[in-house]
Design brief:
heterodimer; A: 277 residues; mainly alpha; MetI-like fold; 12 helices; 84% helix; B: 397 residues; alpha/beta; Rossmann fold; CBS-domain; 6-stranded mixed beta sheet; 4-stranded antiparallel beta sheet; 17 helices; elongated; binds adenosine-5'-diphosphate; binds magnesium ion
């Protein structure tokens, strides 16, 4: 006996919902596009304005200033030099710009949400399961909703990256504020502090280290996502890898892969150092 | 003048405070209510008042509701029922915003574990209250420096709390509360976390400061010795309820129930009994201008005593005469006591503790005179009286 269930029109339904959202959220997507696009352009222009060699020196000096560690500094200089030598300089600049812009957007949305969740128990009860759920999804799933809103391209990549990398910023901010000893908050209350005074004079300063930990994670997640987002048109180092795969050029893919590893190591070291001090 | 008045204040922790409150008013006790409703009684119908400039110590065992009570006064905890008046204003009726203002103006609070802000320097900690009030930086700094000086930490402003010892940290806590010059200090076990020696110093200093600042202080303590030392009056709590209110003497002399008596038993009685409570108030004395040797001798004979204090018309103590020497004056036919007066008569102030009286009495052969700050005679203490007073109250000699 053969019996066929009618196929559920799930895909159609979702497309209808997305259509609706795309139409009605146009103002938001336009604003996001503008910010993201301008941001990247600005970053890229700034970093391409000087000769790569000068930029390498500048970055090396910056890393030394931030870490005061000889090892990382030398690694930065040699690593960046290698990247330039392999002809991956503009791809790297593009990747760094994407990471930076995505991170800035993720933090400036994520930290306020985190603060709100810390101060409002109900908000946290709603947001927390969402964050938990987001963490279980594989990274490239985030690419799907980006396309209907922004089409293929860098803005869509940034959007996916922002969504993907925001959870730690929210989570750690909430955690950091909740971790502030109750008696200190009580003390601020006893002296007649209002909500904002409490937040800016006591809670945020004391949560700073934890929040910085969240920011670090956000940056590292952003880097990993920017690479994956090459699939929807983020260029950069991820784009080089993606192209090499499509053209069956393992050598070129490997070179771009090394570039990504170098950037990741430098970022990780600098961030670790920053969050410790 | 009453500064703080609490009327039937209750605080119940839990989901069904009204149900618990009803049981409380029916006279059910804390354990029963917890078993029935799951709610915890923090404070049970507490009523008392604090006069302006007075130190009231709220005392009780751990868990008796002291912290909860003091937090009801500035509404860090919302009282479940009852009224709390501060300067005639019912604080339970204040709106959020009014309450904030009220806290800024009226209350300074000192916490058991100091609750200093670790990310702020000492001076920034002390300035905190003023910063909240949005006062000018220069004013703020000046007041904070003054408060720091008052607690003996001048020059420590740039340090961080973690660089200071426990005793110093609590001085910062005290300075922070004093910097805004509030009328009322709420001190929740402010000295309990300190070493005994440092603790005693802090108590002494608080008493000394209080001489000039005259704040209204609600001091929480679980230590009767501390309560007796600091308190003008003591409020004793048990299971959230007030079980006795009185001066330290009241509490010691007439413990209102077994619970209080148990506390009292552990106090070293000799530290608490003072010259004033032990002394005999009425006694014969010789007056410098009117009494000659014969009159003095007759007074000694009538009272069967061997010495007599000599006073002037204003009751000021001039010295002591002894029966044998007065007898010699009479033999010689002298008209004045003058030459027999020992001007080094032992005298103590009314608040001298019994423990110190022993030492004084050891070295003299006449009673001890108790005199006020103007050297006027208030009473006398003989050895037998001291022993009796201590024995009566069950102390160890
Ligand atoms: N936030 C709270 N939630 C629930 N119960 C509390 C809370 N604070 C205090 N209690 C309870 O109230 C009672 C009195 O506590 P507390 O005022 O801290 O006592 P004390 O300061 O005298 O040691 C205790 O039984 C305690 O468990
Ligand atoms: Mg307590």
């Amino acid at each position: 006996m053969s019996f066929e269930l009618p196929r559920l029109p799930l895909g159609d339904g979702i497309e209808a919902v997305l259509d609706f959202l795309v139409h009605n959220l146009a103002f938001a997507t336009k604003a996001f596009s503008a910010v993201a696009d301008q941001g990247i352009r600005l970053m890229e222009t700034a970093m391409m304005a000087v000769h790569p060699i000068i930029m390498i020196f500048i970055l090396t000096a910056l890393v030394f200033y931030l870490t005061r560690q000889r090892g990382v500094t030398i690694f930065t200089f040699l690593g960046m030099g290698l990247i330039w030598n392999l002809g991956l300089w503009s791809a790297t600049v593009s990747t760094l710009s994407l990471v930076l812009v995505a991170t800035l957007i993720a933090i400036s949305i994520g930290i306020p949400i985190g603060i709100f969740c810390a101060l409002n128990g109900y908000a946290y009860k709603i947001v927390r399961p969402i964050l938990d759920f987001m963490q279980t999804l594989p990274a490239f799933v985030y690419l799907i909703p980006a396309i209907p809103f922004f089409g293929l391209g860098r803005v869509a990549a940034i959007f996916a990256t922002v969504i993907f990398s925001m959870p730690p910023a929210i989570r750690f901010t909430t955690l950091g504020i909740k971790q502030v000893p109750k008696e200190l908050v009580e003390c601020a209350d006893a002296f007649g502090a209002d909500r904002w005074q409490k937040l800016f004079k006591i809670q945020l300063p004391l949560a700073k280290t934890t929040i910085m930990g969240g920011v670090n994670q956000t940056i590292m997640l952003a880097l990993s996502m920017v690479v994956i987002a090459a699939m929807i048109g983020a260029r950069g180092l991820g784009g080089e890898v993606w192209r090499a795969i499509q053209r069956l050029q393992p050598g070129a893919g490997f070179e771009a892969g090394i570039g990504i590893v170098i950037v990741a190591i430098i970022l990780d070291r600098v961030l670790q150092k920053l969050s410790k001090s | 003048m009453e500064k703080i008045v609490l009327k039937n204040v209750c605080k119940i922790f839990g989901d069904h405070p009204q149900k618990a409150l009803k049981l409380l008013k029916e006279g059910k006790d804390k354990d029963e209510i917890q078993a029935k409703t799951g709610s915890v009684v923090g404070v049970n119908q507490a009523s008392f008042e604090v006069k302006e400039g007075e130190i009231v110590v709220v005392m009780g065992l751990s868990g008796s509701g002291k912290s909860t009570l003091v937090r009801c006064i500035n509404r860090l905890f919302e009282p479940t029922s009852g009224e709390i008046f501060v300067d005639g204003q019912d604080v339970t009726k204040l709106s959020r915003e009014e309450l904030r203002q009220f806290r800024q103006q009226k209350f300074g609070m000192v916490f058991q574990n100091f609750a200093l802000f670790p990310h702020r320097t000492v001076i920034h900690n002390v300035e905190f209250g003023l910063e909240i009030q949005k006062s000018d930086l220069s004013v703020r700094r000046e007041k904070a420096e003054k408060a720091l000086e008052l607690v003996g930490l001048k020059g420590w402003g740039e340090k961080f709390p973690s660089e200071l010892s426990g005793g110093m940290q609590q001085r910062v806590g005290l300075a922070r509360a004093l910097a805004m010059d509030p009328d009322i200090l709420l001190m929740d076990e402010a000295f309990s976390a300190l070493d005994p020696l440092i603790r005693r110093d802090m108590q002494d200093e608080l008493i000394e400061m209080q001489q000039s600042m005259r704040k209204t202080i609600v001091f929480i303590s679980h230590d009767l010795d501390e309560a007796l030392k600091l308190g003008d009056r003591i409020v004793l709590m048990k299971d959230g309820a007030v079980v006795q209110i009185g001066t330290p003497e009241d509490i010691l002399m007439n413990p209102s129930n077994e619970y209080v008596a148990k506390f009292v038993e552990e106090v070293d009685i000799t530290k608490v009994l003072t010259a004033e409570t032990i002394m005999k108030k009425s006694q014969d004395v010789a007056y410098l201008t009117s009494d000659g040797p014969r009159a003095a001798m007759r007074k000694m004979k009538n009272n069967a005593i061997a010495s007599l204090f000599v006073l002037d018309k204003q009751n000021k103590l001039h010295g002591v005469v002894f029966a044998d020497e007065v007898a010699k004056l009479i033999e010689k036919g002298e008209k004045s006591l003058e030459s027999a007066i020992h001007r080094d008569a032992a005298a103590v102030s009314p608040d001298t503790p019994a423990s110190e009286l022993f030492a004084v009495m050891q070295s003299i052969s006449h009673p001890v005179a108790v005199v006020d700050e103007n050297n006027k005679l208030k009473g006398i203490i003989v050895k037998g009286l001291l022993m009796a007073a201590i024995a009566e109250r069950g102390g160890n000699i």
